[in-house]
Amino acid sequence: MNETSLNLKDKQAAYRIYLILGALFISSLVVCNLIFQKFFQWDFFGIYTFTISVGLIPYPITFLITDIVSEIYGKRKANFMVTAGIFASVFSLLIIYLASITTAYIDPGTDPNLQVDNDTFNLVFGKSVISVFASMTAYLFAQYIDIKIFHFWKRITKGKHLWLRNNFSTFFSQFIDTVTIISLLCISNVFPWSSFGQLVLSGFLFKVIVAALDTPVLYLAVYFLRRKFNLKQGGEITLEI
Length: 241
Fold this sequence. Notes:
This protein is mainly α and about 240 residues long. About 70% of the residues lie in helices and about 5% in strands.
């Protein structure tokens, strides 16, 4: 694809936008690993009732952001963002571990509702270590595959049909992600195997629906960035990282 060199002012703006997208990407990734134990049900117009972890709410945002970065900044910058997300996940895992091995101090003079004991903390965050490991494994497979497929279709379509490469890459990578992470969590006894089929089906269908719904957001973001940086269709910004 054609790469576009920017003047200093536009390059600084491009860096700022890239950093903002990276911050949203990493925060979404880390948060979904911390809140995954809470589930809710969603009745989709009476057609199907989803049983979904709240951790899936921010997760599709990561695929939307990698598609935006892939389209505007190129494959290398998208891969760099994914790698940064891995380091952030490992770092959050270390912090959770250090917090879990400390002994909670309960001040008798403080409202007990404002304090957390060891058992409560471990109940909420105890499985986060397993979750982060499973998520990182699935994440490695899915995100890199998503970026690879996205750029494969970008070459095939010569930069046209953004909706096609966005949805095709996301559907395939999300299926791999869902099966991988649910399998690892069942192997680790976080979820029973009896829930495997329902969790995979609900998780994948939810991600597919969200991916389809976020296509207008992708088009809007890409349109704005192309116009701001005067990019041609299929063009990418050259940034040294």
